[in-house]
Each structure stands twice: as structure tokens, then as C-alpha cells.
Design goal:
The protein contains 13 helices and 26 strands. The protein is of the alpha/beta class. It folds into two domains: 380 residues, Rossmann fold (3-Layer(aba) Sandwich), CATH 3.40.50; 101 residues, GMP Synthetase, Chain A, domain 3, CATH 3.30.300. The strands form seven sheets. It has a nine-stranded mixed sheet, sandwiched between helices. A hairpin with a 3-residue loop joins strand 18 and strand 19. The mean pLDDT is 93. One of its GO terms (molecular function) is medium-chain fatty acid-CoA ligase activity.
Length: 498
């Protein structure tokens, strides 16, 4: 059903409740029966009930700490109705890291689920906040409240992962979120006939904004898992027959390696979308062999995140690419001086669009004077116009005057049957300035002389100056909640091993 574009999140929810009142919006695998299945009319009722239950005013913040829960989505809409702001906390952070975020954004209260009741109460007591258990919130239907939201109101503050420094709160306005929905939904071909499986955390824009909110914006059904479990995801695919799901390399690997992977009928999935700049070739082959294209979305906390996308029509031909700029999004690659680079040359990805945030909380510029967000990611644009990410600018290694991009080496190493996962980082060297060090997690059964075997696979595929000069074997690599490598931690560990 085609509707006039909504100017606020409250108006969007009202549209969907009117158009699809008894169509299932959210189907949840949690234990609280009140939230296990919400149709669009009930989701709207819950949003208005929460808006009345919480004493918020325009601009005030409310923090959320918990696993994925329909109440988190209802709370986003509820606060938007008041012109207020949701601040989801990464539940994998430490109490000190939670406290730093709360100190930064000063929320009115902290809403939490049962799993995080104890740390939430302790955190609230320390920070002088009110802790509110989600199961105590009054969800009794109320007379719908007038929509006080405005397009320019902040609606969501998402803190960056902090892999290169202190986290910063990216301020997404209602207009930013709506623009991202308008970009992401048609790019994925979403409609009310779709069923989307969400198992990635909603505290991140990937789990919330790539598929979940876009699906709700068109009246689709969302199957919401409290947290990712590969067996539960495969069981849901077999039972509920979703048409789309979003994964990241770490979760996709867990699915492919699960004993039931080969037995589950995947024909219901028209695509698996991946929120990652780099996808291991092995995982792509495993999915494509099952007849499911793996599409890719490039973006960041600050860019919606739907910025560059590789759709199903190009998924196999351009496997490993991020694709082309999404409609309405501008992308340019620049050198360290900020000048555009020629096609085929490596440059930093800069993104401008209606879904790109302008500020970090409270009023720090997130974009340059022309409105471009500088991502810190390095990529090159291929002749056909698509983009291939080669790494982070801070990860680039300069050895003997040559630029080396770790992602190129990591992709080759990851294809080796003995390598489960790997990271390549630079370490100081008196002769070369820097040299490449490969930190590797090996698969069971790898021989003791694994280094020579892995090096042999690089012959003829990688220039010798790019080869790792040192190799380190570890049991696991440090990663963020969404599976991104935390390379500063790897470098620090290497220093400690000297």
C-alpha cells in the first residue's frame, strides 16, 4: 500500500496502524506473553501507553539496557511522540563504560529488562537515575496522544563502538531515521508481504536500522530474537519461513558451521543481507552454494547506516564488493589532503545524504563544512562504479615506503583451510618502518608447521613486500558486539609479548 511519506516517527506508526491494524508487526521469542506478538494497532497502543507512562519532555533522554525486546522499539516510537530521545546501551560493555555514556548524555531514567535488572539498579544508584523494569511499565491502552514530534527532533543517540577512542553519541533525528527507512526499504525490495528475521542487537544501528525499522515502515512482519543463537535462527527459518535476514560475518560463520546448516530448507530466503564492509569469500561461497545471495550494506553508526549497497542482482558477480551508493546518498573517495582520488585509486570513504547525522552529542560536528562524513575507511572504486573496501586508514601499514592494506592480506589468509580467522596489523621495524604481523586462529587439525603451509598459499597471489614478517597463533581475536576486530587490542597484546 502506497502512503504519503510521514514527516515524524509518530505519524509513520499511525499510518501503519491504520493500514495494517491486525497484521503482525513483531513476533518475539521472549518469555513475557504481553510482548510475544504485537500487531500494528497494538504496537501503536503500546507506544502511546509508554509515552504517557514516562514523564518525558522534548529533548530529554531515556536509556535502555537489555537484550532485544519489542518494548525497545515501542519506546523509540513513544519517545518520538514526545520529541524525546532513546539511548540504547550496548549490553556487552562494562559498568564503567555504561557509566561514561550515561555521564555524557544525562538521561532522565534507565529502562531495563529482567536479565539486566541487577546491573541496571546498581548503575542507576551510582548515577543518580531512576531504574525502571520494563515489565513494570503500564501498557494499558490510553487515548492516543497528540504527536509532539518534529522532523528535526533528536530521536536516537547511538554511541560508537569506541575501537579507536572514547565512544561518541551519534545524534539521529526523526528526519534522519525516516530518510534511512525511505532508502533502505526499497533497496531491499521490502513490502508488507515480507517476514524479516532480526537476531542482531538493536542497540546498534545495524540491527535496528538496516532491516528492522525499514520492515516495520512498510508493514512487514519482524521475527525478533532476544539474542543471536545459530540453532534458534536456523529453527526459525525452518518454522517461520522468513524472506530476509541480516547477519554479520561472525554470525554468518556460526550459521554455516552449525550442524543443521545443510539440513534446513533456505528456499524461503530471497537474500541474506550482511552489515559489513568485508565479507570472507568462504562464507559467500557457502551461502551461494545453497542458492541464497548474500547482499552487502556498507555504513557506520553515523551514516544511517544504509549508505552503499550490493543488491541480490549483483551479489555473485561482484562478491566481496560493497556495491553502489544507495539512492540519495553521495559517496566520494579522498586522499589525506581531502582531494578526490582517481577511479581505481585508494581513498577515504566520505558520505553525504539525508540519513547522515550532523552532530555528536551534544553539539559536536560529525560532518565537514560540505556535509560529508569522513568514515576513516579506505576503498577504491572499480571501473563498473562499485566500491571495494580495503581497510581502515589507521590500519594502513607503510613498509619500506609502500602502502599495505591489511584487508587484502586477511582475505587471502581467510581462504586457507587451516585458518579460522585472522588479523593483520603493523608493528614498528628499524629497517622497514613497519612490518606486517599476522595473528591467526587456526582450525582444529592444523599441523605444527602451519606457517610454511599458509605462506605457500600466498605465492603468486600477493606481492612479497606485503607478506607478514611475523606470525602469531592465538585462541581467539578480540571483537566488538557486531563482530568487528578490535585492532588496538591486538596491537597492545603484541607489544606485551615482546
Amino acid at each position: 500500500m502506497s502512503l504519503e511519506p510521514a514527516s515524524t516517527l509518530g505519524a509513520l506508526l499511525a499510518q501503519r496502524a491504520a493500514a495494517h491494524p491486525r497484521h503482525t508487526a513483531l513476533q518475539w521469542d521472549g518469555a513475557d506473553a504481553r510482548w510475544q506478538r504485537l500487531d500494528y494497532a497494538t504496537l501503536a497502543e503500546r507506544a502511546h501507553a509508554l509515552a504517557r507512562a514516562l514523564p518525558v519532555e522534548r529533548g530529554l533522554r531515556v536509556a535502555w539496557l537489555g537484550f532485544n525486546h519489542p518494548a525497545q522499539i515501542a519506546l523509540l516510537f513513544a519517545l518520538a511522540l514526545r520529541g524525546a530521545v532513546l539511548v540504547p546501551l550496548n549490553h556487552r560493555l562494562s559498568p564503567a563504560e555504561w557509566a561514561a555514556i550515561l555521564d555524557d548524555c544525562a538521561p532522565l531514567c534507565l529502562v531495563h529488562d529482567e536479565a539486566f535488572a541487577e546491573p541496571a539498579r546498581a548503575l542507576a544508584a551510582t548515577e543518580g537515575l531512576r531504574a525502571i523494569a520494563v515489565d513494570t511499565l503500564d501498557t494499558t491502552p490510553v487515548e492516543p496522544l497528540p504527536d509532539q514530534g518534529r522532523p528535526g527532533d533528536a530521536a536516537l543517540i547511538v554511541y560508537t563502538s569506541g575501537t579507536t577512542g572514547n565512544p561518541k553519541g551519534a545524534v539521529h533525528t526523526q528526519a534522519h531515521l525516516l530518510a534511512n527507512l525511505a532508502i533502505a526499504a526499497p533497496a531491499q525490495g521490502l513490502s508488507e508481504r515480507d517476514t524479516v528475521l532480526t537476531a542482531l542487537p538493536l542497540f546498534h544501528v545495524g540491527g535496528l536500522c538496516i532491516q528492522t525499522l525499514p520492515a516495520l515502515s512498510v508493514g512487514a512482519r519482524v521475527l525478533l530474537h532476544r539474542r543471536f543463537d545459530p540453532g534458534a535462527v536456523l529453527d526459525t527459518i525452518a518454522r517461520e519461513r522468513p524472506t530476509l535476514t541480516l547477519q554479520v560475518p561472525a554470525t554468518l560463520q556460526a550459521l554455516v558451521q552449525h550442524p543443521h546448516w545443510g539440513a534446513v530448507d533456505l528456499s524461503c530466503l530471497r537474500a541474506i543481507w550482511a552489515g559489513s564492509s568485508l565479507l570472507p569469500a568462504e562464507l559467500l561461497r557457502a551461502c551461494h552454494a545453497r542458492g541464497v545471495p548474500v547482499c552487502n550494506v556498507y555504513g557506520s553508526t553515523e551514516t544511517g547506516p544504509f549508505s552503499i549497497a550490493l543488491g541480490p542482482e549483483h551479489a555473485q558477480e561482484f562478491a566481496g564488493s560493497c556495491g553502489w551508493p544507495a539512492p540519495g546518498v553521495e559517496v566520494k573517495l579522498v586522499d589525506p589532503q581531502g582531494e578526490p582520488v582517481a577511479r581505481g585509486r585508494v581513498g577515504e570513504i566520505c558520505v553525504r545524504g539525508p540519513n547522515v547525522v550532523a552532530l555528536y552529542w551534544p553539539d559536536v560536528d560529525a560532518v565537514d563544512t560540505e556535509g560529508f562524513f569522513h568514515s576513516g575507511d579506505l576503498a577504491r572504486q572499480e571501473p563498473q562504479g562499485h566500491y571495494v573496501v580495503v581497510g581502515r586508514s589507521k590500519d594502513m601499514i607503510i613498509s619500506g615506503g609502500e602502502n599495505i592494506y591489511p584487508a587484502e592480506i586477511e582475505q587471502l589468509l581467510a581462504e586457507h583451510p587451516w585458518v579460522a580467522e585472522c588479523a593483520v596489523v603493523g608493528q614498528p621495524d628499524e629497517r622497514w618502518g613497519e612490518v606486517c604481523v599476522a595473528v591467526v586462529v587456526l582450525r582444529e587439525g592444523a599441523p605444527d608447521d602451519w606457517v610454511s603451509g599458509v605462506e605457500a598459499a600466498l605465492h603468486g597471489r600477493l606481492a612479497r613486500y606485503k607478506w607478514p614478517r611475523q606470525w602469531r597463533r592465538v585462541d581467539a581475536l578480540p571483537r566488538t558486539a557486531l563482530g568487528k576486530l578490535v585492532k588496538p587490542a591486538i596491537r597492545a597484546w603484541l607489544v606485551s609479548q615482546r
